[in-house]
Amino acid sequence: MKLARRSLLVAAVLAATLPLHAQTPTPVEVAGVKYEPTASVGGTRLQLNGAGVRYKAGIFKVYTAGLYLQNKATTPEGVDSAPGPRRMHIVMLREIDANELGKLFTRGMEENATREEFAKSINGTIKLGEMFAARKKLVTGDYFTIDFLPGTGTVISVNGKPSMEAVKEPEFFAALMHIWLGRRPADSQLKDALLGKAAAGRPET
User: Fold this and answer.
1) Environment class of residue 56 by beta-carbon count within 10 Å: exposed (0-12), middle (13-18) or buried (19+)?
2) What are the angstrom distances between the C-alpha of 7 and each of 3, 10, 12, 118?
3) Angle 180-182-187 (CA atoms, 0-180°, nearest 5)?
4) Over the stretch 12-29, which tens digit does the pLDDT of each residue have?
């Protein structure tokens, strides 16, 4: 009788705890890089909107990227209008000339903005170029975050350390996001992944 009661008690405890475990989000792994399901930015809890890999020439992995927002967004417009802090987290998968990466970012911003929009981002674009030029190179495992903090602006940190002064113009953060989410994204499949849409598989390189 005691054994039966004990079994019932154990079953009840398991039944009560299983739903909690089922609801606990797990990290998302992309090309060996784990993205936590949530992140705290400016004291605000954000959730991972999507993560994927940036490929060069369709086959060479360059970096992974993960987008964090307060609420899920499935369109570029939704990301642009998202309230509160936002974050893009990037982890390098191979060594690359930092100055060259800075030039690619600048080109991506320019290609996805009108002349007027890009003009509003010039201040931040110059600081971004100087930051990358000063680093010389980025190696496998290096990471940087691009945070937008209302009232402060865009803050970029490399390997966890702030690497340039905050850029107050909100247009700068939007221009940066359009590198990956604009009408001419750096990688269309990465764009889909960041927006939480399934991206087709590619060869391992």
Assistant:
1) middle
2) 6, 5, 9, 67
3) 40
4) 444 444 454 445 679 999
How would you write the chain as a 3-class SS string?
A: CHHHHHHHHHHHHHHHHHHHHHHCCCCEEECCEEECCEEEECCEEEEEEEEEEEEECCCEEEEEEEEEECCCCCCHHHHHCCCCCEEEEEEECCCEEHHHHHHHHHHHHHHCCCHHHHHCCHHHHHHHHHHHHHHCEECCCCEEEEEEECCCEEEEEECCEECCCCECCHHHHHHHHHHHHCCCCCCHHHHHHHCCCCCCCCCCC
pLDDT of residue 185 exceeding 60, the answer is yes
Return the pLDDT at 136. Answer: 87
pLDDT for 133-173, tens place per residue?
888 899 999 999 999 999 999 999 999 998 889 999 989 99
pLDDT tens column, 191-202: 999 999 865 445
Tell me the whole-structure pTM to 2 decimals. 0.84
Q: Are 147 and 184 in contact (CB under 8 A)?
A: no
Given a contact cutoff of 8 angstroms between Cβ atoms, the answer to whether 64 and 91 are in contact is yes
Assess contact for 35 and 27: CB atoms under 8 A. yes
